[in-house]
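Do me a favour: review this protein, sequence plus structure tokens, and tell me how the chain folds. Record follows.
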Amino acid sequence: MPDLSYEVAAYSRGKNIVCGIDEAGRGPLAGPVSVAAVILPRDFSLADLDDSKKISAKKRDVLYEKLLGDPGVLWAQVFADAQEIDKKNILRATHDSMAAAVLALQQKYRLEIDYCLIDGLPVKNFPFSHEGIVKGDGKSLSIAAASIIAKVSRDRVMLEYAQEFPHYGFEKHMGYGTKRHVNALEKYGPCRIHRRSFQPVSQLTFPFDS
């Protein structure tokens, strides 16, 4: 289970305000990538908080509400939509969104973040002092909290898109490339939230629905 070891280590090096960063939705064929940045109280604890991928949707929703309902938890969340992903590529769009989430967090709470803990590898040219932690959402509580906020925020947006574009079954697969999703793409063609640069979307000859 994640704990505050990485955060405490950063505090011991003189970093006063430390945030965790994680994303959700890099792999899907449709919808945005979601990024959250979170600062936790130094004595924070929350039962069952873990990597969002290890937790059921129902439990993620419960943890999400607890995190957002805790006045000591400072957070910001941003999206990069399909158009931005296609323009920049998914990696650059994700990294830019990570920086944007940190800026949003600073502006929201009027503070200066000293250090960032990022799930995964270090980010080249990232505008904030940071370290990358591979599988950090299972090691750092602030990254785990960011993973929950990023994932639940994205899933809720995809449920809204499922109402707008009912043919694709977004409520079931959240835009990932399941057999059902690919079959729907082949039958109906892509819609405006599909990532044109991703295969097999890029291989389709259908016009893009608005």
